[in-house]
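Predict structure. Chain length: 206.
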Amino acid sequence: MSGWILSSGGNEFSAAYLEADLAALAKRKNLNSELLVVVTAPFPTQLLAYQTAEKYFANSGVKTIMSPILSETDLIIENVTQLAQADAIYFAGGTPSRLTKCFVDTTAETALRTALTNGAVLMGSSAGAMLFGTKVVMPGGNEIGKGLNLLENQIVLAHFGGTWPTWCTQFQNQGFGLLGLAEGSSLLTSVTAETAPIEFGPVSRN
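Prediction complete.
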């Protein structure tokens, strides 16, 4: 795989993320390609989430398109193919379990990995960023399942307040690294790890 991953702390589509979002989108193979916005997670306000994203990116001259994948029942070949062929994909925040059901161990995961192999940029905020880790763990420490493991052996803590919860110890003892992303912060990572990660705002590791 040769693409890029942008993980952000939550409360997306605000000025605090503009520098990071544009830096990630600058990695697209085709700078005129549309950004595919996945709003599976923000149920039941999925259309509103897309409209907010559309307006936010349009202000910077970036065209968007809404993914039709709103739940796991939408994983038909046309929608999955759209993922595989995208130059840039954004996962909005919301309910993490909706993302794990759709994108972990499904045809959609295979499509995402194809897109990354072709050099795509994957962007995610809050639940979207959590999806990129090895495990998806809720703020109280409840593990809800596997992530995509695009950030290998990492668990992403979105909306990070600066203090590591006590439950983190159990995952550290299992050999996982922790990535704490405060609201307004992002981490841009090359899948090949040939380029050092780029931090925007307060990014914490443990």
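Summary: The longest helix spans residues 46-58.
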